Amino acid sequence: MVRLARAVGAVVALLSGVLAGWVLWSPLGSDARDATSNLPAILAADGAGVACAAVIAVAVTSALARRRSIALTTVVGAAGPMLLALPELIRYPADSAVFMYSNAVAAGLVLGAAAPLASRQLSAQASLAAGMIGAFMLAEAVEGQRYWSEARGWTAYASLTEWDPGAVLPSWIPITTAVLVIVGSLLDRRTSWTTRLDRRLLLLVAALPVVAFAVNWLLVDGGAPPTAWFVYAAVVVAVVAWSAWRLPGPDGRILFAGTAVLAAALGGAPSSTTEPWILAISAALIAAGTALGLRFPMPMLGFGLLALVAAAVLLTQEPWDAVPVVGFIFVLPAAAAFVVSSCLPTSAPASTVGLSLPFTIAIPAAVSAAWVTGSRYGDYAPAPLFHWPEAVPTGAAVVSVAVVVVCGVGAWGLDLRSGLR
């Protein structure tokens, strides 16, 4: 029975991570990337939904961790996936903001309840991280395949007034997740999760996604020069570092890990391609990286690999021009999963914050401003959105590497403080 409970817990965590990560990647999904809303543009942009989901996730995790009620956690954990499946059961209004914020609330509930449930066992925590990293790396490619599939035909070009909101993922996935959450709670009724998060720090990390989105919007919409984006990147990393050091023990390493993964994805990600075999390999590498990080936790090795991937974008001349592609396809997925699973925290709120960081603070946009500032922030559906750039500015690559190095040094310092080295 114990093995069954652990297996169900790991599956629930994996599915919850995929669901939450998918919505954090883009609360509107590919079917509504051009949909309209009556709200002001800044409130109807996908980034606003991402920030909303992240704030709700942190608040829900903190509340559930303090309440320590398995029944309440189960209700919240099942309600989130069912809310994601709701567009398949009832007709949503045509205003895209209704659909977006509904998904954002659902993702916040899913991640907010999954973090304390997963923190009861290390394998479930690793599964949650794998699901989030998998969605972060691969969601764009999968959504692109679905959106432009031949089955859509002319509907891919249908007018916006004909848009009919649908679930961001097939409804059987969130429904199955909700059922397994209930089954898992019946098999394992422990409330052995920990809170360990200062209220003032909680307010800061909850406000960070909102402030990051607002600043991104202002900088992109205003056509800010790259120097302004570099300053933004430096300030965000400083805030992340301060928050990480305020967490007890080594828990802050997960914040450094999430930030480093985001910075290393500067030049691209496996999601930049739609080749099925590449996506399959990337998914397998994420699973392998998670398992290795769980079995042999070596955060510095993971940070080192991420730094190499970030620096590889500078190799644009023959015969080294294929190195960045190899790095993004084969090294980045494994290294990202490895470093995150090597830095898993003991506190449920810390897990929620760290796993949501790659979706919320937009460091790729900050350090790659040379090619993103040509369009308004509101024109981008996913957050963040990856493309294969023709050339990565040297300054952007240097900032990306610097962010990874700073995160690695910060995590190493936390290890020293905690007596792990």
TrEMBL record:
<keyword id="KW-0472">Membrane</keyword>
<keyword id="KW-0812">Transmembrane</keyword>
<feature type="transmembrane region" description="Helical">
    <location>
        <begin position="276"/>
        <end position="293"/>
    </location>
</feature>
<feature type="transmembrane region" description="Helical">
    <location>
        <begin position="252"/>
        <end position="270"/>
    </location>
</feature>
<feature type="transmembrane region" description="Helical">
    <location>
        <begin position="392"/>
        <end position="414"/>
    </location>
</feature>
<feature type="transmembrane region" description="Helical">
    <location>
        <begin position="226"/>
        <end position="245"/>
    </location>
</feature>
<feature type="transmembrane region" description="Helical">
    <location>
        <begin position="39"/>
        <end position="62"/>
    </location>
</feature>
<feature type="transmembrane region" description="Helical">
    <location>
        <begin position="300"/>
        <end position="316"/>
    </location>
</feature>
<keyword id="KW-1133">Transmembrane helix</keyword>
<feature type="transmembrane region" description="Helical">
    <location>
        <begin position="322"/>
        <end position="340"/>
    </location>
</feature>
<feature type="transmembrane region" description="Helical">
    <location>
        <begin position="168"/>
        <end position="189"/>
    </location>
</feature>
<feature type="transmembrane region" description="Helical">
    <location>
        <begin position="98"/>
        <end position="119"/>
    </location>
</feature>
<protein>
    <submittedName>
        <fullName>Uncharacterized protein</fullName>
    </submittedName>
</protein>
<feature type="transmembrane region" description="Helical">
    <location>
        <begin position="352"/>
        <end position="372"/>
    </location>
</feature>
<feature type="transmembrane region" description="Helical">
    <location>
        <begin position="201"/>
        <end position="220"/>
    </location>
</feature>
<feature type="transmembrane region" description="Helical">
    <location>
        <begin position="126"/>
        <end position="148"/>
    </location>
</feature>
<feature type="transmembrane region" description="Helical">
    <location>
        <begin position="69"/>
        <end position="86"/>
    </location>
</feature>
